[in-house]
């Protein structure tokens, strides 16, 4: 039996200053971003939601025909990768849910993030109290200020539905979700159709359908 010692190729992928900024951005995902549904004033969490179309492997069916080999437009993978406590991370966790029930939702924020929160709560309630460290104060004020300014800018600039036709699909989804819309899409590539037209009054929580090609 041969044992290989762990080799650290790169102990840090970025400067401490950059890492602080990224950490604050991931905190804001939970505090006031796509995963604000799991925010808790009792303990701080940070992370990133993910929603992806599920890849269907290429296999032979019972008739010997090749099927699959594409990304489904009906099946999804929802995920949430994060850490906690946000300011002094002790634990990291990624939750990946394949084929969530679309009737209940399929976005990472809707499906995977609540599971992450339950895991975090369980760890908090079973960890000795002297090992718990929970702080909710803003550590990186500049990032928080920038985020608030960005939030105000979004609210001011997007009182109406923007035109996202011709935009990269994932960029369009990100923009529309950030201004408060729920997004459903099909296809891959750039947006060639949007159900809510440019100039319509923005109603937060409304669903917009995109077709990509």
Question: What are the SSEs and their pairings?
Answer:
Blueprint: H1 16-32, E1 46-56, E2 59-60, E3 66-67, E4 70-84, E5 91-98, H2 108-126, H3 141-157, H4 169-178, E6 182-186, E7 191-194, E8 207-212
Overview of the molecule:
- Mean pLDDT is 85; it is low at 129-138.
- The longest helix is centred in the middle third of the chain and has 19 residues, at 108-126.
- The protein folds into two domains: 10-131 and 140-149, Beta-lactamase, CATH 3.40.710.10; 158-213, Trypsin Inhibitor V, Chain A, CATH 3.30.10.20.
- Strand 2 and strand 3 form a beta hairpin.
- Helices cover 30% and strands 25% of the residues.
- The protein starts with 15 loop residues before the first helix and ends with a strand.
- It has helices at 16-32, 108-126, 141-157, 169-178, and strands at residues 46-56, 59-60, 66-67, 70-84, 91-98, 182-186, 191-194, 207-212.
- The protein is built from four helices and eight strands, in the order αβββββαααβββ.
- The strands form three sheets. The chain has a three-stranded antiparallel sheet with strand order 1-4-5. The chain has a three-stranded mixed sheet with strand order 6-8-7, covered by helices on one side. A two-stranded antiparallel ribbon has the order 2-3.
- The protein is an alpha+beta fold and 213 residues long.
Quick overview of this protein structure:
By secondary structure, the chain is α+β, with helices and mostly antiparallel strands. It contains 4 helices and 8 strands.
